[in-house]
Amino acid sequence: MEEGLRERKKRETRRRIADMAMGLFMTKGFDNVTVAEVARAADVSVNTVFNYFGTKEDLFLDREQELQESYDRVVRERAPGESVVEAFRRDYFAAMDAGDWRYGFNEGADVFSRLIMESPSLRARAREIDHLITMSLAATLAEETGADPDDLAPELVAGQILGLTRVVSRHLLRRTTAGEGRREALAALREQARAAFDRLESGIGGYGRRPVE
């Protein structure tokens, strides 16, 4: 129990620091906020901030592991007879209906994206995270399908699936940033996403289909 309490306290501290940091970043811009300001706002020391977050960029992009694990679950929990593409299609549209942050469907995603684009260091870190998540998904696909170490299919499939979701979700951000109503933009995006997944299905749709017992 004691260990559980310590871990819970650590999670709460990490979340408080991240929340305080995000509030400052949203108000002042990422490059205009120092780690010392974040520490003061969260009532911790600068060293404590770095105990939880390796870099200032990680304070902003603090849900990498959560995102990575969610994609891995989509693969591992696909239904019998369901391919990897079908599982991601189902997850993507469920996320759209729920306003899930993982694909940028949450309120405030446009502001979050704008702050990344305004900061060279955040753009670089976001690209790095995209690569790490893609490689993690590729490793999960290789494990799930029993792929040979020299088989490029897991990495190719991971790149195509996540590339699709990123491109389609960026399209939503462009439309809402341009002033289009969110409901109208989502309705149009749904059709775009269906067409994109249809195209992907015709190419790699059967890949990783779980056997029906």
TrEMBL record:
Pfam (any one): TetR_N
Tree of life domain: Bacteria
SUPFAM superfamilies (UniProt xref): Homeodomain-like
Residue ranges constituting the HTH tetR-type domain according to the UniProt record: 11-71
Keywords, alphabetical: DNA-binding, Transcription, Transcription regulation
Coiled coil: none
DNA-binding region: 34-53
Name this protein carries in UniProt: TetR/AcrR family transcriptional regulator
Species this protein is from: Nonomuraea indica
Lineage: Bacteria, Bacillati, Actinomycetota, Actinomycetes, Streptosporangiales
